[in-house]
Write a structure and sequence with these properties.
By secondary structure, the protein is an alpha/beta fold. The chain is built from twelve helices and 24 strands. Strand 22 and strand 23 form a beta hairpin. Helix 9 runs parallel beside helix 12. The protein is globular. The relative contact order is 0.14.
């Protein structure tokens, strides 16, 4: 489960469920509420899946067991978890992470007579089965990622009627959480490798389907990868029939990012950077990611932290105020990255320097960033911080935190001493 679950996606008229959630958060931490809801949803859907649930899992789609054609590419791979440095109490989940993981080959599926439904363009095959690879990645244990599947979708798959028919082939990059920067960077953009392989093999040039009203960083990232407005089509319908749907596999398996996908993405992004302007800033190789005034997950003593780190060559950057190409330029030279647990740490994928990733967390920690560190050959440290409850826009959001400045300095000095041996 990730921090994005506690942020409001859009402003607008509150639904009854939102009002109930806001009321409950007056008495119960929102993270606990959401965790309980997700656990209940997973138990219900997993039980239904064992009996009968109209879904097509990643494994079944990869193996071609159905009315579709699947083309594997690349190679199988393996990964080992780096030995982490832990400052403060160790996260409970850390001990449960497997030390090794084996990847199967990525693939591209070609689905004839598919149907796309809902705001996330979730895909059904010709038998009205839900293609889970269009929903999101699977769980850490390899089970289908049900938490990304809206509960009302089982009704929509039966009742929805196509508003249009898309005659030409379309490649969908839309998923439930594709509007979140970290998910787009690690799960969305790497799918273009499979899309480009399909184009080479078939001679077709399908349009890329993306979410309606795409964020600026999404369009900028596609442009840097070589795709302009003429290559994409926004998803604006409640339901549509697609004669030929191209569905590249999501390049994360059981929460592990594929090392080959990370390397492919990094090389493409860095190789596409335009020459720096004469007036362009020179970025530090030691980076502190600042959230500025963004509500939640801020370092409340950030100024004190920078007072201690600036003499060591660190500079802070508020990346959500930067163009995407400049983010790539910044992180492509990064050797140490410090950030609060969240999407900002995903930018480590852009560094070819095997950086030291320092993950600041409060009581909440997930394994996705140590797994990303494993995929890019980075060193990883997690530092437990003091949580401070934050409030914004009338609803509780993720905690802010206070960091132990001395512990951060000692961690960096110890890391430098170890590397110099």
């Amino acid at each position: 489960m990730n921090n994005y679950l506690f942020r409001t996606k859009k402003a607008g008229r509150l639904k009854f469920s939102s009002l109930c959630f806001d009321f409950l958060t007056r008495f119960i931490p929102p993270r606990l509420i959401v965790e309980c809801m997700l656990k209940a949803r997973r138990r219900i859907l997993s039980a239904l899946a064992r009996a009968h649930l109209p879904i097509v899992t990643r494994e079944r789609l990869r193996d071609g067991r159905g009315p579709w054609r699947t083309e594997p590419f690349g190679a199988e791979d393996a990964i080992a978890l780096p030995t982490p440095t832990v400052v403060g109490a160790e996260p409970d989940e850390l001990a449960r992470i497997p030390r090794h993981f084996n990847f199967r080959k990525p693939f591209v599926s070609i689905i004839a007579d598919a149907t796309l439904i809902g705001s996330s363009a979730l895909a059904l095959d010709s038998g009205r089965q839900i293609l889970m690879e269009s929903v999101g990645p699977d769980f850490d244990d390899g089970a289908p990622g049900f938490f990304a599947l809206p509960m009302d979708f089982f009704v929509k798959r039966v009742t929805a009627r196509a508003e249009i028919v898309i005659e030409g082939p379309v490649c969908s990059l839309v998923t439930t959480f594709g509007w979140i920067y970290g998910h787009w960077l690690i799960e969305g953009l790497p799918r273009l490798e499979g899309y480009e392989l399909y184009r080479q093999r078939s001679g077709d040039k399908p349009l890329l389907l993306i979410n309606e009203n795409p964020q600026s960083w999404k369009m900028q990232s596609l442009e840097l990868m070589g795709y302009g407005p003429a290559d994409v089509i926004p998803w604006t319908h409640r339901a549509a029939r697609v004669k030929t749907l191209i569905l590249p596999s999501i390049r994360r398996q059981s929460g592990w990012s594929e090392p080959r996908a990370c390397a492919w993405l990094r090389e493409r992004l860095i190789g596409a950077l335009p020459p720096p302007r004469p007036s362009a800033p020179r970025y530090a190789s030691r980076v502190v990611v600042s959230r500025g005034s963004t509500p939640g997950r801020r370092i409340l003593n950030e100024d004190a932290l920078m007072d201690a780190l600036e003499p060591l060559g660190f500079a802070r950057y508020q990346t959500d105020a930067m163009d995407f190409a400049e983010e790539v330029r910044l992180f492509s030279g990064a050797e140490i990255i410090i950030a609060v647990h969240g999407s900002g740490l995903m930018n480590a994928v852009m560094s070819p320097n095997r950086p030291l990733v320092i993950d600041l967390f409060d009581s909440f920690w997930t394994s996705e960033f140590i797994k990303l560190a494993a995929a890019i050959g980075a060193r990883y440290a997690c530092v437990r911080c003091q949580p401070v409850r934050a409030k914004a826009h009338g609803r509780w959001v993720d905690n802010d935190c206070l960091v132990d400045v001395g512990a951060i300095v000692r961690l960096i000095e110890a890391s430098e001493a170890e590397r110099s041996r």
